[in-house]
Every structure is written in structure tokens, then in C-alpha cells.
Specification:
Largest interface: A-B, 34 and 23 residues
Structural class of chain B: mainly alpha
Largest sheet of chain B: none
CATH class of the largest domain in chain A: Alpha Beta
Number of domains of chain A: 3
Radius of gyration of chain A: 26 Å
CATH topology of the largest domain in chain A: Rossmann fold
Number of helices of chain A: 25
Strand order of the largest sheet of chain A: 6-7-8-3-9-10-12-11
Shape of chain A: globular
CATH class of the largest domain in chain B: Mainly Alpha
Number of helices of chain B: 15
Largest sheet of chain A: 8 strands, mixed
Strand content of chain A: 15-25%
Oligomer: heterodimer
Order of helices and strands of chain B: HHHHHHHHHHHHHHH
Radius of gyration of chain B: 24 Å
Helix content of chain A: 25-40%
Helix content of chain B: over 70%
CATH superfamily of the largest domain in chain A: P-loop containing nucleotide triphosphate hydrolases
Number of strands of chain A: 23
Shape of chain B: flat
Chain lengths: 689, 318
């Protein structure tokens, strides 16, 4: 522990020149030191400066930024006063980077082999003839199947997880002493994320390299880091061991962050951390977190707390660090609103199949049988008014496709969608009446893409009001203002443009726009995926409240199983567009599970350094479901044998509506899974004893 | 990929066929025909009847269209309205001249545009970019006849370095067009360079802001290697289509330039044919220009597809 730090950042401040000509700091007086072999996590919300700090370790600044004071050393070399040549030598050599979005960080016109060879050419002493063998070795080291094939591919021909592995291999090519990872698993499926993290843990252990892991996800940090630095508004607010930060943090922000994470083990809604961090240069004389803090005092407004050693050796930037433990760090959120089992029917999907392929004109004219390949098949679900159905599955599982079909944007190729009490619902959106359109509303994943950037918030909200209710003048204005109040934004937002709002505020406007139509059914497509956890909790809370008041029915799509659990009455698990399991959420999340659900649940990370994910299946992305048998046959860790390849598994119904589609009987599944859960517990206890 | 090419080729041929139909119909609806144009004031009564009889203009339009189209397919574009020259031979020489002008303009303009565009993009908002970008805007906004006239005034009237007008006859050998062709080439390259340059500049800026350029930098790739290996192959892809449009524009006859410099190309031939009401020539020229447009664009699309791996997989998978 006494070795000299390999990355040593001292008192660094980085800022840019604002429109008014004043200097706005993005990072304020940050110290960060990482010793050889150590793995440090940088956590914080978007805009907290964590990526800027990581890039500063490489001596790199994004366009427009400049160093205001302080220094950044790597292995004793000052990274901001190196010659271009020596920077080129260090970057990608002894100091590697795994970027946030590997899909966009690999050059699209160069083959994978060429990009890795380039890294070797720049940073290794190997002979040219050895490059190919070494590249294949690196691809194998990051556990890519069939390195020879990957070598010859272009980046866009790989899945997200494979691209991320290639990026890691590229960083390893320089045999780095330290690796910077900038949100390396954000945007990946849970299973893929868990596999990448295990790979990183193993690589760190094998090579002894230091890691700086930047993430907003405390679960991921918990899995790979020894020490955690929590950042807020460009400052370090808490620094301690991973265990202490995650289990007994002494800063109110860290506790709020932990409380806002939805957890698999907790069916409550997470607690929202209201408000947002001050913009660069807007933090006053006091603590930057003061407006969102539950224990703020007058002192917090007038003086900026220093980063001081507190209880348990943690460095905390809080005047009241010793009181922070009064604040909750687990969810104190509301119980999710449960639906009434006797409510009238709201929506029914009957053997719905959906295809993206278009039926050929000639086949259609000849009346030939529809032989298009179907992305989604055999979906039958009936929902009651006021019920929330969660749809979960990896990317490509057809979750969003089903929403599009219900919205009429992609009419089903087979089967029927009925709405309300059996009333006829035209399947194509063009043929639906205005009233049908009003009753079914859709909220999209990314509010930046779903709102016209040149419309004010008022114009955005007025459109459904004019279209469905013919409101005009004062009535229109009043109703828009009322809607904004409903989503806790206030009427003063009406004249703003979407770009002047934060991500969470924009998503609230999107919710308000959907509810302006007074819908009966709201389709939510990954509505919280683009948001920070603290903001996510607020949006979930809002959706729950609206449901309580208006009895709205939701179909809630998310790849995050914990988020789905927090809001849903029932959960349907999809694989390759086919249902695997459906039932009341507490039953789906409890044993026995469909083997696929088990794989998904096993890969979910908890913000707990002692928690290890259970990875039982590979994170392969299948492009199409198998022609016959069980859709999950190729990845199933509990595959029985030939029967899974040839016969479609039967639905095993339980009296409470829980149904699992598997050849293995529920009793057998239960026995296997409970046994394994027990044997998993034992070694952990012996370790800690 | 091959299927895609055949499909596009087929669609291109259909486009040309439709264009030919539209051209023929357009000419058909115009008052007057080849005979009225040829006979001028004598075009009446018996003489006109005889002329029409002789040229077969009394037959139904569909029949004449098919005959014209069939002949055009075999390379026979018919006879000019004066009844003496075959259009094929008239067009042949002019097409050659237009190709010469286009080739010279492209060979100067395209490399210049790419080099300047890349410079402006890489040194964005620096003096080099400001000079190049401002010059480009001037070159684009000043109408060609103005810049042409100014250049003639400067280089041929005042300085006397270059001939200001082309006096060589249409069917003269290529070598005789020098140095008369130099001023028209300069004017054309100016306009063309400006368009392509601005496109290249914005494309370079976009690519240089991309994640993979940041990644290449942080992987330790030296600057110029990064520019040539990672940035330019991606930044220049969109240039292919703009260059193609420019080629089509150049071959389609740059009427203004040809008139100002008295250059004997397709553009001036078209103008002359229109004022002479030489409808068979107008028809033939319109068809040639449309065909050039369609096939140059087809070539550009194919090239883009070959150069862009993402498009390539998109179409080979299907």
C-alpha cells in the first residue's frame, strides 16, 4: 500500500469559458491517486465531472475545456506538459482507455484485426510477423468466441458486448499498468454487463494492472472496485473503501443515491432524490449539495465544507458527516399501487405475432399463405383496468416491438389485439379513430428524440389538448399549466424549450403529454433508461401516483429487472419474441423460475461488494430464434436434451396465474433452484467466518 | 451485392425510358414540328404536307416514338431538322468537347476541393479555415457569368496572358483547345470546388468530433496517421455523391460558361438547337443528358456502397 501512486492527480480544476466570458469550473480542486494494482471507482450523476477527471488522467481535455490549476501525473510524468510524442507513447501503452460507447469508438471503416494490429504496431516491441498471432491471443483473452472470424469483421458486425470486449482487448494490447474505464458497461444487457465485469475482475487479478472505473452504476462499481470516490457537481464528496461507501456512507448524497436505486430484493418504489446539481459556476459559497440535502443547516449555506477524515477513515465533504447515518439509504418509497383483480378488461393480446418483413406484393395478390419470419410470436396476455404489466428481456427480445404493435405502428401479422371490453380496435394506427388514439398513449425512451426541439413546452402539451379535446385560449393554457403541476414542474416551464430542461424534467414533460390525452392505457418504452438513478426514482414515483389517481393501465417495458419489479403487478419475461414466463411480480421474482428468468435474475448486480452475480449462461446474442423447440434451447443452462430442440415446451399454469413455459416440471425447477441457492450461501458464510 | 447492382441498373434503365417518353411527349405538345421549323415561312399547304409525308410525321405518335426510341437504342439519333447532318455526328464532336472541359475541371477542382476542405476542417475556426471558407462562399455566390467576365477582363484584356474566348471549331483535335480552355476550366473549378469543399469541411469536422477519433487519439495514434487512417476514409464517403452530381452537371452542359466563352460543347449546342427550333436535336440532347445523370449517380451509389462497410453488409445480407 505504500508504493508510489501510478496515477496522481493533485488539486486539479478544469473549466471552460461561459457565454458571459466568465470561467466556469467543471472540476474543482480534485485529488485522486491510484496505486499500482488498485481499482478505484468514480461514481456520480451525469454532469458530475467523473469522465472529465478520468480523461484528465490521460492528459486529455474535451474541446473547450482547459486546466485552471493543479496537475496530473502518470508514473511521475506530468501529463499536461508532455510532448505530443511522449503522450502518444503513454496513451494506449502503459495507460489504456476503454471508452463509454465502443460501438462508436471503433473506426467503422477498419476491420477489427487492423485496429488491434495498429495498437500493437504503436505500443509493442513485437516483430511484425507476430502481430496476427498476438491479436488472436488478445481476442481470446477477452473471451471472444472464434477470434479468427472476429479478426476479419468490421465493428458494426459485432454485438454491443463483443464491441466492448474488442475495446478491452485493444487497451490490453499495450500491456497497460493502468486502465481507465469510462462507463464500459452502460447500455449493455444485464447478462452481458455481468460477464464483462467478471472479465475485468479476472484481468485485473491476472495482470495486476490498476483500474479507474467510471460509472453511475453502484452495482457495477461494487463488483470491481476496492475504493470508491463519489463525485458531485465537480467535487469529490466522499472517498472511502468500496465496502464503506456502499454499506455505511457518511455523506448525504451517497446515501440518497443508494436509496434511489431500485433493488431486486425490495418490492418498494425507490426513494427519489429530488432536485438537481448546480450547473458549473452556479454552486454558491456553501455546500453544492445543500438544496437536496435532508440535514442541511445554516452553516451548509454559508461555508463550503472541506474534505475531511470522518468516522471510519472515510473522507467526506460534509459539515455533518457524523449525522449522515440518520438518513436512510434503503428505499423508504411508497408501496407500488396494486391493481384490483375484479376490474374490467383493458387490453388483450390474443396469439399475436409480429413481423418486420413486408409481405411481397405478388404473394399478397396471389393470396399465398403469409410466410414472413416473425420477430414476436404467440403472445397472449389479458390485462385488467389499472394493472401494470412489465415486459422484460434482453435487447432483441421483442419488448418494444410489442409496444409498437399495441400502438398500431406495426400491425400484427397474426392474432388480434382487443382494447377495453372487447370493443373492436383497428390494428393499423391510420384506421384508428381519434378516440382510440387518445385512449392509448406512448412514452418513449429518450425525451430528446421524442420532442420537437423547436417547440416550447406549452406547444408540446397543447397539441394533444387541441387534438382530442378541442381546447382553446384560456382553457388550453390552464389545462397545460395544471398538467405541468401534476408532474411537479410548475407553469413557469411553459415558455421553455426542451433543451433548457434536464433529462428528468424532459421525461416528466413527456409523461404530462401522454396524460394530457386522459388515456386509459399508457405504453412506457424504457422510460427511465436514459435517466440518472436519482431522477429515475422520481419518474417511477410519478408514474405510480398517476396510476393511483387515474386508474391508468400501463405496459412497462424495461431491461432493468429491479425497475420493473418496483412498478409492475405482473411481469412477462420474453426471449426472442416468445413468452417464457408470466405471472404476478412476486411470483416471477421468486423461485421457481423459468431457466431464462433465472439467468437474468442471476446477472443483476446489487450495490453490495459481497454480492456476486450468478452467471450460468453465455451472453451470446442470437439473431433469430431456433426453427423448432424451445426458443431458449441454445443458451439454457438446464437443457434436458433432444426434447428441448424438437418440442415446444408446454405452459405450466399455477392457480395464481403464474405460468412457466418449460419442459422441466415446476416441482423439479423449484428443487434444483432452491438447492443451488442454499449451496451458494454456504461458501460465503465460511469465507466471512 | 450483384443482385443489388442489377436491380439498380434495371431501375436506371426504366428511369431513362420514362424520361425519353416525357421528352418525346413534351416535344409533341409544342406547336410546330420539324417541318414548320425547316420550311419556316413556306410552311403551309401542299409543301408542308409533302414535307410531313416525306419525314413520316403523319403517322401516329406512338409509332413514331417507338421508332425513335428503337433507333436511339442502336445509337442512331436521327437527322437534324435541316435534313443534312446526322445528329450522331453533330453530337459526337460536341460530347467530346464537353467531356474534355469536364475532365479538366474535375482534375483541377476535385483534388483542390478535397485538400482545401480537409485543411479547413482540421484547422476549424483558425485563419486557414476562415480564408478558405470565405473564399468558397464568394466563389459560390458570384454568378458564373460575372466571375467569367471578370477573369476575361483581368487575364485576357488587361494582362493579355490567356485568350478570352474559344475560337477553335467544334471538331478540332483536343490539343488545339489549349490554352483557350484554361479560363473556362478555372471558372468551372471555382464553383465546383466551393461546393465540394464546404461539404468536405463539414464532414471532416463531424468525423473529427466523433468518438472513434477521440479513441484513436487516446490509443496513442500519431495525429497524421489518425487523420489518414481513421478520419479521412470516413469523412470522404459523402464526397463521392457530391462529386457524382458535379460530374453530371458538368457533362449536362454548363450552358452559361459555354456561351460566355463561345465553347463548342453540348450546352451551347442545346441553346442553338432551341433557338433554331431544331426539335430532333433538342430531343436527342435531352435524352443524352438524362442518361448521363442517371448512370453517373448509379456509379456513385455503387462506389459509396463498396467504400462503406456498413452499407456493404446491409445489402449483402439481404
Amino acid at each position: 500500500m505504500t508504493a508510489a501512486p501510478i496515477i496522481d492527480i493533485q488539486d486539479i480544476s478544469i473549466g471552460f469559458t461561459g457565454l458571459s466570458g466568465s470561467t466556469l469550473p467543471v472540476l474543482r480542486n480534485i485529488d485522486l491517486s491510484v496505486r499500482p494494482g488498485e481499482s478505484v471507482g468514480l461514481v456520480g450523476e451525469s454532469g458530475s465531472g467523473k469522465s472529465t477527471l478520468a480523461l484528465a488522467a490521460m492528459g486529455y481535455l474535451k474541446r473547450g475545456l482547459r486546466v485552471l490549476n493543479g496537475s496530473s501525473h502518470f508514473n511521475g510524468d506530468d501529463m499536461f506538459s508532455q510532448s505530443r510524442k511522449s503522450l502518444e507513447h503513454i496513451r494506449g501503452g502503459k495507460l489504456g482507455l476503454v471508452p463509454q460507447n465502443s460501438g462508436q469508438s471503433l473506426t467503422p471503416t477498419l476491420r477489427i484485426g487492423a485496429q488491434l494490429t495498429e495498437a500493437l504496431r504503436l505500443h509493442s516491441k513485437l516483430d511484425q510477423a507476430q502481430y496476427r498471432a498476438r491479436v488472436l491471443e488478445l481476442l481470446g483473452q477477452v473471451r471472444l468466441p472464434d477470434p479468427e472470424a472476429i479478426y476479419a469483421r468490421f465493428p458494426h458486425e459485432l454485438s454491443g458486448g463483443q464491441q466492448q470486449r474488442v475495446a478491452i482487448a485493444m487497451a490490453l494490447a499495450g500491456e497497460p499498468d493502468a486502465l481507465l474505464l469510462d462507463e464500459p458497461t452502460t447500455g449493455l444487457d444485464v447478462t452481458t454487463q455481468a460477464h464483462i465485469l467478471e472479465l475485468l475482475r479476472d484481468l485485473a487479478a491476472e495482470t495486476g494492472m490498476a483500474m479507474v472505473y467510471v460509472s453511475h452504476d453502484l452495482g457495477a462499481i461494487a463488483r470491481v472496485c476496492d475504493r470508491v470516490v463519489v463525485m458531485y457537481a465537480g467535487e469529490v464528496v466522499l472517498e472511502s473503501t468500496a465496502k464503506q461507501v456502499l454499506t455505511a456512507p457518511t455523506h448525504p448524497y451517497a446515501r440518497g443515491l443508494l436509496a434511489s436505486i431500485p433493488k431486486l430484493s425490495d418490492p418498494h418504489l425507490p426513494t427519489a432524490l429530488d432536485g438537481r446539481p448546480p450547473a458549473p459556476g452556479k454552486a454558491g459559497a456553501g455546500c453544492a449539495f445543500v438544496d437536496r440535502c435532508g440535514i442541511a443547516s445554516g452553516l451548509c449555506r454559508s461555508s463550503r465544507p472541506p474534505l475531511a477524515a470522518g468516522p471510519g477513515g472515510a473522507m467526506s465533504r460534509c459539515h455533518h458527516a457524523e449525522q449522515a447515518n440518520q438518513l436512510p439509504m434503503t428505499s423508504t418509497g411508497a408501496d407500488p399501487e396494486r391493481s384490483d383483480p375484479n376490474a374490467p378488461a383493458a387490453l388483450a393480446l390474443d396469439k399475436v405475432s409480429i413481423s418486420y418483413a413486408k409481405q411481397g406484393l405478388i404473394e399478397k395478390l396471389l393470396g399465398k399463405e403469409d410466410t414472413r419470419p416473425v420477430t414476436v410470436d404467440g403472445i397472449s396476455v389479458a390485462m385488467k383496468r389499472g394493472e401494470t404489466l412489465g415486459l422484460v428481456g434482453e435487447s432483441g427480445s421483442g419488448k418494444s416491438t410489442i409496444l409498437k404493435s399495441i400502438a398500431g405502428l406495426l400491425p400484427p401479422a397474426g392474432g388480434e389485439i382487443t382494447f377495453g371490453d372487447g370493443g373492436h380496435l383497428p390494428q393499423e394506427v391510420e384506421r384508428r379513430s381519434n378516440d382510440h388514439l387518445r385512449r392509448i398513449q406512448l412514452i418513449f425512451q429518450n425525451p430528446d428524440d421524442s420532442m420537437n426541439p423547436r417547440h416550447t413546452i406549452a406547444e408540446i402539451l397543447e397539441q394533444p389538448l387541441k387534438l382530442y379535446f378541442g381546447l382553446k385560449g384560456q382553457a388550453l393554457h390552464d389545462r397545460s399549466a395544471e398538467l405541468l403541476e401534476r408532474v411537479r414542474l410548475g407553469a413557469h416551464y411553459m415558455t421553455r424549450l426542451p433543451s433548457q430542461l434536464s433529462g428528468g424534467e424532459k421525461q416528466r414533460v413527456a409523461v404530462a403529454r401522454a396524460f394530457a390525452a386522459e388515456p386509459e392505457l399508457v405504453l412506457c418504452d424504457e422510460v427511465t433508461s436514459a435517466l440518472d438513478v436519482s431522477v429515475q426514482a422520481a419518474v417511477l414515483d410519478l408514474l405510480n401516483e398517476l396510476k393511483q389517481e387515474q386508474g391508468t393501465t400501463y405496459v412497462f417495458v424495461s431491461h432493468d429487472l429491479a425497475v420493473v419489479r418496483a412498478l409492475s403487478d405482473r411481469v412477462a419475461v420474453l426471449y426472442q419474441g416468445r413468452l417464457c414466463e408470466i405471472g404476478p411480480s412476486e411470483d416471477v421474482y421468486a423461485l421457481p423460475s423459468h431457466p431464462y428468468t433465472e439467468v437474468l435474475l442471476g446477472a443483476v448486480l446489487e450495490p453490495d461488494p459481497d454480492y456476486a452475480p450468478k452467471l450460468t449462461a453465455d451472453d451470446v446474442i442470437e439473431l433469430a430464434p431456433p426453427a423448432q423447440g424451445c426458443p431458449f434451447q441454445r443458451r439454457c443452462p438446464r437443457k434436458l436434451g433432444a426434447i428441448c430442440d424438437t418440442d415446444s415446451p408446454p405452459w405450466q399454469q399455477q392457480p395464481n396465474g403464474h405460468a412457466v413455459r418449460c419442459h422441466i416440471s415446476l416441482e423439479e425447477l423449484n428443487r434444483l433452484q432452491v438447492d443451488e441457492a442454499r449451496s451458494d450461501e454456504t461458501p460465503k458464510e465460511t469465507l466471512s467466518a | 451485392m450483384l443482385r443489388m447492382f442489377i436491380r439498380r441498373l434495371f431501375l436506371g434503365l426504366i428511369t431513362v425510358a420514362l424520361v425519353s417518353l416525357i421528352i418525346f411527349a413534351g416535344v409533341e405538345f409544342l406547336p410546330g414540328d420539324a417541318c414548320t421549323a425547316f420550311l419556316e415561312r413556306e410552311a403551309q399547304g401542299k409543301i408542308l404536307e409533302n414535307c410531313r409525308e416525306e419525314l413520316g410525321l403523319n403517322r401516329p405518335a406512338a409509332e413514331r416514338y417507338l421508332e425513335w426510341a428503337a433507333n436511339a437504342l442502336q445509337g442512331n439519333l436521327g437527322m437534324s431538322a435541316n435534313g443534312e447532318d446526322s445528329i450522331g455526328s453533330l453530337v459526337g464532336a460536341r460530347l467530346g468537347n464537353s467531356l474534355l472541359l469536364a475532365a479538366c475541371a474535375l482534375l483541377t477542382g476535385v483534388p483542390l476541393a478535397i485538400v482545401l476542405g480537409v485543411i479547413a476542417g482540421l484547422w476549424r475556426d483558425r485563419p486557414a479555415d476562415l480564408i478558405v471558407s470565405t473564399a468558397a462562399i464568394f466563389a459560390m455566390t458570384i454568378p458564373e457569368f460575372v466571375s467569367a467576365t471578370v477573369l476575361i477582363l483581368l487575364f485576357s484584356v488587361w494582362l493579355g496572358w490567356l485568350p478570352g474566348i474559344v475560337l477553335t471549331s467544334a471538331d478540332a483535335p483536343v490539343a488545339e483547345f489549349f490554352p483557350e480552355i484554361i479560363l473556362p476550366v478555372i471558372v468551372l473549378s471555382m464553383v465546383m470546388t466551393a461546393h465540394i469543399l464546404r461539404m468536405v469541411r463539414s464532414s471532416v469536422i463531424e468525423v473529427m468530433n466523433g468518438d472513434y477519433i477521440q479513441m484513436a487519439t487516446l490509443k496513442g495514434v500519431p495525429y497524421w496517421q489518425m487523420v489518414f487512417r481513421h478520419a479521412l476514409p470516413n469523412a470522404l464517403l459523402p464526397a463521392i455523391n457530391v462529386v457524382a452530381l458535379t460530374i453530371a452537371w458538368l457533362l449536362g452542359g454548363v450552358v452559361v460558361i459555354e456561351v460566355v466563352f463561345n465553347y463548342p460543347g453540348l450546352g451551347r449546342m442545346m441553346i442553338d438547337a432551341i433557338s433554331d427550333r431544331d426539335l430532333p436535336v433538342v430531343q436527342a440532347l435531352a435524352l443524352i443528358v438524362a442518361t448521363v445523370y442517371v448512370f453517373v449517380n448509379l456509379t456513385a451509389d455503387m462506389l459509396t456502397m463498396i467504400a462503406n462497410p456498413r452499407l456493404r453488409t446491409l445489402y449483402t445480407r439481404k
